[in-house]
Amino acid sequence: MSVRPFVVSDRVRWSEVDGAGIIYFGAYVRFIELAETEMLRAVGLPYSEVFQRFDIWLPRVHLEFDFFSPARLDQLLEVRSTIERIGTSSITTQMEIWDTSAGVQCASARMIVACVDRATLATRPLPEPIVAALAPYRLPEERRSR
What we know:
Shape: globular
CATH class: Alpha Beta
Strand content: 25-35%
Structural class: alpha+beta
Number of helices: 3
C-alpha cells in the first residue's frame, strides 16, 4: 500500500537566515510546525478546535533533525509529512523538507507528540477520532523507520 505524504510549502523568510542568506537551523522548526498544523487542519481537526473538543494537549516530547543541503532566503521549500507511528498516547511524524525547484532534500525531521489531559497533564490515550483522521498519512508497517 502506498501512502501519499501530506505536503505544504512556504518560503524561507528574512528573519530565518544568517548574514550569508542561509537558513538558520532552528528556523526549520517553523516549517515543521506549519506541516503539523496544516495536516491536522486538512483532516478536519484544526488546533483551534482540537484541544477543547477532546480536552487534551499534544506537547512535543521529541524532535530530531538531519540537515543535507542549505536553504536560502526566499527559497520555496516543500514539507512532506507522513505518520510513522501512532501509539496508545503518542504520534510520531516523519517530515522531509525539499527544495523542489532543485530536486534537493534540505533536511529531514522526526517529531513525537504525546497526548495529555489538559487539567492534570497526565498521559492519556489518543482520542479515536484523531487516530482515524490521520489514517490517510500513516505509513504501512514495513515502511516505518523504528
